[in-house]
Structures are given as C-alpha cells and as structure tokens.
Amino acid sequence: MPRVMFTISYNIKPEFRDQYLALIREMKQHLTTGSKHNYSVFEAKAKKNVFTEVFMTNSIEEYDALEDNLDDKVQEMISTLEGYVDDAGMKYNTIIETV
Q1: Could you report the per-residue pLDDT of 61-84, keeping only the tens digit for each?
Q2: Which residues contact 73 (CB under 8 A, 6 or more apart)?
C-alpha cells in the first residue's frame, strides 16, 4: 500500500510573518493532536517567508479522505492563512510512494 505525500507551498507577506507563525503553530497542534494527522511545516533555508506544509498519509484511501476530515476550526484557520499568502498563491503537489 503506497504512502502519499501532499504538499502546499506558498510565500507569506512579510508583514504577516508573526501572525502566520502563531496561526501555523496552533494549526499544527490541532491537526497532530486532535485529529492525529501526520503534518509538518517547513520554511525554505535560503528564502525567508517561503513555507511548505506536508501531509503524509499511509494509503491513497487515507489521502482521499484527508479533506473530508478537516473540521470547522481547521477550515477557519485555513481561511485566515490564505489572507497571509502573497499574490503568487498556493501551489499543491501530491506524490505517491513507488518503492
């Protein structure tokens, strides 16, 4: 059963960095503790304010159900986060394990 990695990459407007970091800490706590998602957030080493969220699932079925398992609180946090993202928007990528 192949695992799936789903990533969301974006640049944060510099003036929202502090608010973003507080929000993403709360979101990570909620997703990893409350709903037990395998979720991490990374910042590019050489590019400040460039972030990637990573969801790892243990199967395609778990990945397919990922969006359905996001509660109202997470949906609200995502809405807030979208206001911090610059005009380039969000980029999504889904990678399926082969070996």
Answers
A1: 999 998 887 889 999 999 999 999
A2: 30
Helices (H), ranges, the chain: 17-29, 60-64, 72-82
C-alpha angle 69/75/76, rounded to 5°? 150
Model pTM?
A: 0.92
CA distance 64 to 82: 22
Cβ–Cβ < 8 Å for 92, 55: no
Give me the domains of the chain, ranges plus CATH numbers: 4-96 (3.30.70.100)
Contact 41, 51 (CB under 8 A): yes
> Residue 57's beta-bridge partner residues?
4
